[in-house]
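Input.
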Amino acid sequence: MVLLLTAIAPCVWGTTYLVTSELLPPDRPLLAAALRSLPAGALLVILVRRLPTGSWWWRAGVLGMLNIGVFFALLFIAAYRLPGGVAATIGAVQPLLVAVLAAGWIGEKLTPAKLTAGMTGLIGVAMLVLQAQARLDLVGVIAALSGAVAMASGVVLTKKWGRPDTLLAITSWQLVAGGLFLAPIAFLVEGPPPQALTLPNIAGYLYLGIIGTAVAYTLWFRGVHLLPASTTAILGLLSPLVATLAGWALLDQTLTSGQLIGAIIILGTLVLSTIRPLQRMTPGPSPAAHRTNPKAQNPR
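Output.
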């Protein structure tokens, strides 16, 4: 159940590219990032009515910068400057980064299986979304790669520092910290918000803020705390998969045989990478139960 709930988050994030391109105002990536995080975080703070204490004032700020502020800004810059396939392919390096960082920072064993899963997932994503005519923009490439580094660092530090309060409280602190970082930068770089927003603009911001941020990040951080960092990161491969399927279903985009093979590789990587953690999380019958239950000793 933990895996399934955590997987909802990258599935929702897979719709970001669609919503950005179809509903949001053009050329306002920082505004989109700020409006996605700050209102959602403020709403959660009002609901939970809890603030950080002690060292968690600066820790929440660091996590908010890595998981929300810096990551959102770079995500939207990449989404605006690169085709979705290029941005998704570069972002798919995140499981490899998490595996390496988790080995150094929190002592998770860096196994050949983890490295193989990360490389296989990256190949699958490339086959799924990267096309021959895709253009490369240097700023967009740097933004996508830096965003993957920021998010990978945030995942590992979230796991390392633990959970000092409720899940909603920690999520709200990070969203507010990230939004407060983004808002002034968005104003300085892009100017004041548009005086008039269309109904599609408003719908896009509401979807990204409530569903794509408040709900999705709550589920994501829950998974980060309960699952191995590398397992959580590999679930991020669902994002480009959903992005491609959404384009096929809603924008009449075609799927080639290579893309179908890439999708199969991604699904196979996800299944093989999550079987062992799922088995470890499934409790077996206790030895005491076998000692005291005659039916357990003599099954019929």
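The chain has one domain: 12-278.
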